[in-house]
Design brief:
Structural class: alpha+beta
Number of strands: 10
Shape: globular
Strand order of the largest sheet: 1-4-9-6-7
Distance between the termini: 24 Å
Strand content: 25-35%
Order of helices and strands: HHHHHEEEEEEEEEE
């Protein structure tokens, strides 16, 4: 029934009806499965109810035993930035998209300080146009933010390396790129800042690599990424989103 309602056109009355059913399911005797909530979460996203979407995501993850305290306390606006929580492929989770010429994994002992981390292995068979790791991040419109992440690499070939890209949710345009991850490097912190547009309530954070124009252009090597973080420039990231209606 919740799925049927969430497929209808958004309206205030429909949203209130869905909210009542959501609360009933959330506090019922049976656990609300993550896959069962995907239509409702998509409905909130399509309706522009971004603050409510974030709160419902936290409730759903907590109900299923997945908790990111730094995300819940607004200390990090990226969900599961340290990759310690098993990936659920939900709307606000990391999306690992398979493709030719690379393999994506989250592995124990491969992160910063030997924790879990993201491992991207490129086999040297493709001039990869890569955007296979991404997450939708709920932010406030017209605000300034600071990001950071840790990365290291092993024998990444070609002059076109990997970088973190911030994409505006409304215009779909890239608003910031980090410096590139190239060659062989030890763990290094990458940092930067960006601003959201006045009308956008979210950005897409993704790891990116553009194709090389050189003859020897097939990407080979391994990159490791961990501790991805976005914080508000106001008060170090503890500023909460606008209150729910």
């Amino acid at each position: 029934f919740l799925t049927q309602k969430a497929s209808q056109s958004p309206s205030r009355e429909l949203t209130e009806s869905i909210e009542r059913e959501w609360n009933s399911l959330l506090h019922g005797s049976a656990a609300l499965q993550i896959i069962s909530a995907r239509h409702y979460l998509s409905y909130l996203f399509d309706s522009g109810e971004f603050s409510r979407l974030r709160e419902r995501w936290i409730e759903l993850m907590d109900l299923n035993g997945f908790n990111c305290s730094d995300y819940q306390e607004y200390e990090n606006l990226v969900w599961n930035g340290d990759f310690e929580v098993p990936l659920q492929r939900g709307l606000l989770d990391w999306q690992l998209i398979p493709g030719r010429g690379y393999k994506l994994e989250v592995l124990e002992g491969q992160g910063y300080q030997d924790t879990r981390g993201l491992v991207m292995t490129f086999d040297g068979t493709e001039n990869v146009n890569f955007a296979g790791v991404r997450q939708t991040v709920i932010l406030e419109p017209g605000q300034d933010y600071y990001y950071s992440f840790f990365a290291r690499s092993e024998e990444l070939s070609t002059e076109q390396g990997l970088y973190l890209e911030i994409v505006d949710g409304v215009t779909r345009r890239s608003i910031h790129n980090s410096s590139q991850i190239l060659g062989t490097t030890d763990w290094k912190e990458y940092t930067g800042s960006f601003s959201t547009s006045p009308d956008s309530g979210y950005v897409t954070v993704r790891l990116r690599r553009r194709p090389s124009r050189r003859i020897d252009n097939q990407l080979k090597g391994t990159a490791y990424v961990d501790s991805v973080s976005i914080k508000s420039s106001l008060g170090g990231g503890n500023e909460k989103m606008s209150s729910l209606p």
